[in-house]
Design a protein that fits this description.
- The structure is a homodimer.
- Chain A has about 220 residues and is α/β, with parallel strands linked by helices.
- Chain A has a single domain (about 15-200), classed as Rossmann fold (3-Layer(aba) Sandwich).
- In chain A, about 30% of the residues lie in helices and about 25% in strands.
- The first copy, chain A, is built from 6 helices and 10 strands.
- In chain A, the strands form 2 sheets. Chain A has an 8-stranded mixed beta sheet, sandwiched between helices. A two-stranded antiparallel sheet of chain A has the order 8-9.
- The longest helix of chain A has 24 residues, at about 175-195.
- The first copy, chain A, starts with 12 loop residues before the first strand and ends with a strand.
Chain lengths: ~220, ~220
């Protein structure tokens, strides 16, 4: 406020990302949120593994990072509280899980009520839990995809914000299918985050209503092999 | 054989359809199989309710019908055996369930091994059982659809042949969504039946491989509202 040349930060939502792995979804979110006019900014990236590739990606983008280790806490509650503390220290308003392999417990859910998003590599409620893509491949479905949802106390059970579908081709390996779904994840997660931070989501029962911008829709289908 | 002018019937697969309700899928199958060059012909339609609309549709298309009532049989096995008997009397090779509301038991599965198809109004394995469309609507998914699968002893658990996806629009009622899925059902069921009777399906574990005709695919997506 005292610097008239500064970007009007108060209008940009502060987002924290939690990851356990390489963080390709983090990369997609960084790209989207650093674009001109983005309503969100990633202000911190946390991981539960010091070697998570996501931390390197964050550092490369000059985003602060933190690590919270399960073994440093007597129970899940303590671990969750440590996450909250770190996110609050960075004044985070919204949290995006990007391949974060720990269940989110009450301390996090209470600190960020209906403000934690997750992406899952399956058309939920089909194939929740680990390896959604592999589950879909082995089940022999013809249409697979990914889902962005609000996080609740269950495993991949929260209200659905956006979904993207892709075909399963007959020659597909699990790896091919995973890559095709991943491309779709990189499309739908930034869109869902944008709608969320713009205050466009309302949840009734478990259904999410989105006050969508003109010409946008919360579903995608990409038939590209 | 003795009549050189007769259509070469032995090359046309004999299909029996079982239904409990109005039979709009039956109508789609009749339309597809009466088209010139169809590799399948519906030779009989059976129902477990004398007033099933499907029976009227069949009669209108001059297809023989039968009714097997649960109450005429002491147990499920007896009911299933009566179905087999009727279908065999018409030399049926393939069976299509079209809104048939009874579980298929061992006598039917043994009589028509991997030769019974069903259509379910959801992207299985999501929302099996009754009212797949309503389940999807209430769950708040963004992408719904339908599945043609080979019937096994479970409820909507058999190997998947074809799937078609449709979007769920935010203003949708359950009825709207049901109609959109139904249109897709009428596309994918005839295609799946055609591949089946042409001997194009092979099942490995629970995955179905289709020796697809050039330019065809076992998945569909129709974004039309």
């Amino acid at each position: 406020m005292s610097d008239p040349g500064a970007r009007s930060l108060p209008e940009v939502a502060r987002v924290g990302v939690l990851a356990s792995g390489g963080g390709t979804n983090l990369a997609a979110l960084i790209e989207a949120t650093t674009a001109q006019g983005s309503p969100a900014r990633i202000v911190v990236v946390g991981a539960d593994r010091p070697r998570a590739g996501a931390l390197q990606r964050a550092r490369a983008a000059q985003i602060p990072t933190f690590v919270v280790l399960k073994r440093d806490h007597p129970d899940r509650r303590g671990f969750d509280r440590a996450l909250v503390e770190q996110l609050r220290a960075h004044h985070v308003e919204w949290v995006c899980l990007a391949g974060f392999m720990k269940r989110i417990g009450p301390p996090m859910l209470d600190a960020f009520p209906s403000r934690i998003l997750n992406i899952h590599p399956a058309l939920l409620p089909a194939f929740p839990g680990l390896d959604g893509q592999g589950q879909a491949h082995r089940h022999g479905v013809r249409i697979a995809g990914c889902t962005v949802h609000l996080v609740d106390a269950g495993t991949d059970t929260g209200p659905i914000v956006a979904q993207g579908a892709v075909p399963v081709l007959q020659g597909d390996t699990e790896h091919n299918l995973q890559q095709r779904i991943l491309r779709m994840e990189h499309t739908i997660y930034p869109a869902a985050l944008r709608w969320a931070v713009e205050g466009r989501l309302t949840v009734e029962d478990r259904r999410v209503h989105i006050d969508l911008p003109e010409g946008e829709a919360p579903w995608w289908f990409d038939p590209t092999p």
